[in-house]
Specification:
The complex is a heterodimer. Chain A is 48% helix and 20% strand. Chain A is α/β, with parallel strands linked by helices. Chain B has helices spanning 2-15, 67-75, 83-101, and strands at 33-35, 40-43, 48-53, 56-57, 65-66. Chain B is globular. In chain B, 24% of the residues are buried. Chain A: Its main location: mitochondrion.
Chain lengths: 292, 102
């Protein structure tokens, strides 16, 4: 893992900083009306993003492997390890369509349960529940098929729900964990998605977000930009027959707030102990926070 | 004793379909009722039903249908409620609900 560098930064409390409100509000508005580098009406953005994911859903996992040279698997492993899953937990994976994160959470919990049983410690009567919520039914269908292939088709812990990250269909304080992997930059109003995450988490619940982020290292940045804008759309055209969707994906990364700005948004929502960890020099960042 | 009472509670939960009902209406955040006939989840508070397609509950706000609209279309037997109308009515339902909150 020569390329992996992890740097965890703890984001300070809001009262230590001057108010960033005017700039913050402008940032959010610009995110809500941007579709990649294009400007679109806010109401349109959700539909356009929906079209992108309907189009890419059948090749989504293959393209992830190709674009990240398989690294996305390690990033998701890291995300789930930071979650510290436990048997009996109620977990919500948002924008988790094809199931990658949910399967990992389930497998992690099963291995904990197995170890507990070996030591005669299986006392928990509560059942683990993992909810996979995605706004796009095609992505969910791909996920369900993958679950069946992995022998998890009849598993009563996994629940597939079509829903909107900005208006979640879960009770207040019902979840122990909330993850969103490569989903938050596709949401129209980030602050609404964050507020919903805060609402559904229990006290002590953990928020984790894995997202493509900003690279600042001098030469690496140029290489990464070249890779993003030249190689990826071409790969998208070759493999999935859809250059435009992959162009959107790449542009949306650049339009998304950087690590610090996004961390501020998470703090503003009410989360505590907010920190982020850069992977691969900032190509990907895992933001985390606790609801206390 | 704690273990025994936990087991009792677990059995009680298994009798109903309680498990999946951490689910709430995405608009009103109130509990949903499962309806066997129409295979949907119903939010009583605002009178909206959410379909279940291919075993997946569709709880996106704009997928909700007002209950009166559904009944009307069943009575008229095949008359097609235009999607424009149901969207408008859903907007009305949301407005009513929001006003109720203020």
């Amino acid at each position: 893992m020569a390329l992996r560098r992890s740097v965890t930064r703890l984001v300070g409390d809001l009262n230590l900083l001057p108010s960033l409100l005017p700039r913050g509000a402008a940032l959010l508005h610009s995110h809500a009306t941007s579709f990649g580098f294009k400007e679109v009406p806010e109401e349109e953005k959700s539909k356009l993003v929906g079209n992108v994911f309907t189009s890419v859903s059948s090749n989504y996992d293959l393209m992830n492997d190709m674009m990240s040279a398989g690294l996305h698997r390690l990033w998701k492993d890291r995300l789930v390890s930071k979650l510290h899953p436990f048997p009996g937990m109620k977990h919500l994976d948002v924008a988790g369509g094809t199931g990658d994160v949910a399967f990992r959470v389930l497998e992690s919990i099963n291995s904990v349960s197995r170890r507990a049983m070996q030591h005669g410690l299986a006392e928990t009567e509560e059942e683990t529940q993992i909810y996979i919520c995605d706004i796009n039914p095609n992505m969910l269908n791909v996920g369900k098929k993958r679950a069946i292939e992995r022998g998890l088709g009849e598993n009563h812990c996994l629940h597939w729900i079509e829903g909107d990250a900005e208006a979640l269909s879960f009770d207040d304080g019902s979840m122990d964990g909330y993850t969103i992997a490569f989903g938050i930059r596709n949401v129209t109003r980030i602050e609404k998605a964050l507020a919903e995450a805060y609402r559904v988490l229990k006290r002590g619940g953990r928020f984790l977000c894995l997202e493509l982020s900003h690279v600042e290292l001098p030469i690496f940045k140029q290489l990464y930009d070249y890779y993003s804008f030249s190689v990826i759309p071409a790969m998208g055209e070759l493999v999935a027959g859809d250059r435009e969707s992959y162009k959107y994906l790449v542009e949306s990364i650049r339009r998304f707030p950087n690590q610090e700005a996004f961390a501020r948004m998470i703090v503003d929502t009410g989360f505590q102990k907010v920190e982020y960890e850069n992977l691969v020099g900032g190509v990907v960042a895992i933001h985390s926070g606790l609801k206390l | 004793m704690v273990r025994a009472s936990r087991r009792l509670l677990k059995d009680a939960a298994n009798i109903g379909k309680a498990f999946s009902d951490f689910l709430a209406c995405p608009l009103s955040k109130q509990p949903l009722r499962h309806c066997e006939d129409s295979q949907s989840r119903i939010s009583e508070t605002i009178g909206v039903s959410f379909p279940i397609i291919d075993g997946i509950p569709c709880l996106v706000p704009k997928d909700g249908k007002l209950l009166e609209d559904q009944n009307k279309s069943q009575v008229e037997n095949g008359a097609d409620p235009s999607s424009g109308n149901s969207e408008r009515d859903l907007l009305l339902a949301v407005n009513i609900w929001v006003t109720g909150l203020i």
